[in-house]
Amino acid sequence: MELVSACSARKATVSKPSPKAPQASEPIKTISGNTLVKKYSAEDYIERFSGIAVKEMNNYGIPASITLAQGLLESGNGNSSLARDANNHFGIKCTTEWKGKTILKDDDQKDDCFRVYPSPEESFRDHSEFLKRKRYASLFELNKNDYRGWAEGLKQAGYATNPRYADLLITLVDRYDLSKFDRKEGYIEKIKREDKVLTEIVQNIPEEKKQEPAKAPVEMKIYEVKQGDTINSIAKRFTITVDDLKILNDLGASNIQLGQLLLVSK
User: Fold this and answer.
1) CATH of the domain at 251
2) Cα 97–chain centre separation
3) What is the largest distance, in Å, between two alpha-carbon atoms of the chain?
4) Do 69 and 184 belong together in one domain?
5) Does an H or E element contain 263, and which?
6) ∠ CA 252-47-183, rounded to 5°
7) Which 3 state secondary structure label does DSSP give 228?
8) What residues are paired with 223 via a beta bridge?
9) Looking at the structure, do residues 237 and 115 belong to the same domain, yes or no?
10) CA of 85: how far to CAs of 102, 103, 128, 177, in Å?
11) Contact at 8 Å (CB) between 163 and 218?
12) What residues are paired with 112 via a beta bridge?
């Protein structure tokens, strides 16, 4: 489906001073590093947030399985500092348009500004809004239960820098049977949903340049377990604690399997 934007004529008006836009509040705190505290297991996270993932899928067509897998990855199963202190599960930063609460955390720069949400559900909704942009438009033409297509499409569109990102998303979907939350849609339902979302994407194009800094491509280290590896040797290799490695990958014990994909960066 081709995206077409319409130009509208503007009426000449006498310019008036614009009221001063409200400013974002002062940061509520500054986070030093990314301390992981095990609040959720992967199963806890899925039970807690599957409802909002399904709701976003029904509104926009993003497979609930993909939203949940991304949330598991980007928030460390909901145990990251940003998730705990800011209800921010997808690492979305402040922009000039953001008027809500903020929090500071070192990222691309020292004391980068991140959005604080009243609830995790608001973070999930904002993530859907973030995906409604031209570079991801073709994904919304996929069936809303096509999690493999979405995983590959996100990688190809530059959502993450790691070439194994799609593989890890698919691994998480399969490991936790997340596709059970996805739903098929009929032909007419799909056409109506596509028209709605793609129209909104066209309307958002002028704002995309302003919003682009809100989320840089996800940078994460993904490692495939090789013969002779132990959880201790992997932790040492990537300068991460064994406890953090277990939290990030929801490992209850120290047992790992040959070929298993592990997230090895916080």
Assistant:
1) 3.10.350.10
2) 19
3) 74
4) yes
5) strand 261-263
6) 120
7) coil
8) 262
9) no
10) 10, 8, 21, 29
11) no
12) 105
For residues 209 and 214, what is the distance between their CA atoms, to the nearest angstrom? 10
Residue closest to 233 by CA, chosen among 256, 261, 265: 256
Q: Tens of pLDDT along 1-49?
A: 555 443 343 333 333 344 444 455 677 767 666 667 778 889 999 999 9
Three-class DSSP category at 26: coil
- Are 78 and 122 contained in the same domain? yes
Q: Examine the domain organization and report whether 111 and 225 are in the same domain.
A: no
First to last CA, the chain: 38
Nearest to 133 by CA among 56, 61, 200: 200
Across the range 89-105, mean pLDDT stands at 88
d(CA 24, CA 95): 9
Same domain, residue pair 138 and 254: no
Q: What average pLDDT does the chain have?
A: 84
Tens of pLDDT along 107-142? 777 888 999 999 999 999 999 998 998 999 999 999
Query: pLDDT category, 96, cuts 50, 70, 90?
Result: confident
| CATH value at residue 79 | 1.10.530.10
If you search the block for the tokens 């000039």, which residue do you land on?
96
Q: Which domain holds residue 146?
A: 30-215
